[in-house]
Request: fold
Amino acid sequence: MTGGPVIGDGMPLQTTLIFTLPRSERNRSVETVTRPWAPGSDAAPIDRIPVELLSIIMILAVPQFDFASPDWDFLPKLERSMSDILDLTAVSRRWRQVAENTPQLWSCLHVRAHESKIEEYFMKTWMSRSRAVPLSVSFDGDTEEPDSECFNLLRGNLHRCKHLQLDAPAHMISSLMSGSFPHLETVRLLNRYKEQTLALKDLSLSSAAPGIRLVYLQGISSDFNTKSFNWWCVTELILEATGLALMPSMTVIAECTNLHILRLTFNKLTEEDAKPYFDDNDGPRPRCEKLHTLEVKAPDSYLDFSVFIWWLFLPALRRLKLYGCFVLYPCLLEMIPRDGCLLEELVIDHDAPDPFTTEEEHLLTFFKSLPDLRTLEIIGGIPDAFRTDIAKRLTFKPGRPRNDYLLPKVESMKIWGLGGWASYWDIQKMLESRSKIGAEAPATRLKCATITSRGYSQKHRWDLKADGHIIHDGWHIQYGFLPFVPTCEPRSPGDEDEVVHSTLAVTPSPPPEIDADLLD
Reply:
C-alpha cells in the first residue's frame, strides 16, 4: 500500500473512508488503495506526465458543482467526488504528491459535524491542503454542542468561505455568523428545527461581506434582523418562512433593489399574519426592475397570494412560477400589460376551491397577453374556461397570420384538469398541427406537451413526445359498475359548431372531414 495520511490506530484515511461507500464503489476503491508499489521499477507512462499538466487533469477529473444553484441536491455527488480525490492520491507516490499540492482539489467539502475523530481529521486534511484557496463548505450541525472540534475548525476558516451552507439549529447558526467574509458570495442559513426561529439579532454583514450575491434563509422569525445583510448587493434571494414572518420578509424584499431572482415560500399564511401588512399604507412597496425570475409558493394560505404579485413592479420579468392556493386571473391580467413584462415561462400550480377563471373570454385575453411565452404549465384552475375557440386559436393553419394565433412561440405545454368543453378532436388537431410546423411557419413547433381532460363520460390524456409522436389514453367514466356508453360517433367539429360537452368514444375513429395529412 502506498503511503498517505493516517488516523489514530494507523489506518490510512483512504481505507477508513472506503467503508462508508456502497459495496461496488468499495471494491473499486480497495483495489486502487491496495495496489502494490514496486520501488526501483521504471516509472510507468502515467507517472511521466508533467506536473503542471497532471494537476490540471486532476482538477478537470473531479466534478464541478454549481454552488449558486437554488438547491444543493448534489451533496451526495460532492461526497463521492471527495472520495475520488482520495483515490487520485493512491495511484502512486508521485500522484499523491501532485494531488496534495493542488489546493483547488481540496476547496470543496461537505461535513457532518458529530463527535468523530475521523470526521475531525478529514476536515483538518481538507482545510490544510486547500491552503489559501477560497472554500465552498456545506456544514450539517446535527449536534446541540457548539464547541465540537469540527465546529471550531469551521469558525476558524469562515473568513475563507466563498460558498457557505449551514444546516444547523438556529443558535448554532447565529453563533457562527460573525467576523469578516471578504470572499463570501453565496450563503444558505437553514434552520434545522421548526420549533426554533432564526433572528440573527447581532449580525451585521453590510461591510463584512461586500461580495455577497445569493442569500437563502429558512425559518426566519417575526423579529428577524432586516439589517443583517447588505441587501442591495444581493441578486438572488430565497426565503422560506411561515406567515408570522411576512412583515420582515417584505421589508427585506424592498431592500433588495438589484434582485434578478426571487423565490418565496410562505406556509400557512393566515389573515391575522397579513393584516398588519395591508394596514400599513406607508410600508415598503418593492420595485424589482431587474427581476427576471419569480417563484412563489403559498400552501395552505387563507387568501389569493397574487395580491402580493400584483403590486410588484416587474418590467423585466421572464419566468413566473406560482404554486399553492391562488385565484390569480384578475391580478395577473392587470400586472402583465401594466409592467410590459414579456413572459417566456409561466407555471401555475393551482390548488384552491375557486378556479383560476371560469370564462373562456378571460382565458383568451390572458393568453393574448403572452405572445413571447415558450413554456406553459397550468395545473388545474381552468376546467370550464378552456373551450373550442381557444383550441382553434392554438391550432396551426397554413395562411393564418401570426397575430391570429394564441401563444405563437410556445414550445412546451402542460395543461391538466380540463373540463371537456374542448372536444377530443379540438385538442387532437391542435397537437397534430403544432407538432409538425416547419421553421418558416408564423408559429413555433410544439416540442412536448401533456394535456388531461375529464368530461361527463370520459377522461383523456395526451402526451406529445419530442419526436412528434402523440400518445393518447382514454377511459370511460364508470357509474356504479357499468361504464357510460356514448350515444353518438365522434366527428370533427366544424367552425360554426356550438360548444358542447364532448361525448366522444374512448378510441375514436378519424372522421372523414379530418385532413388526412394531419393523421400521417
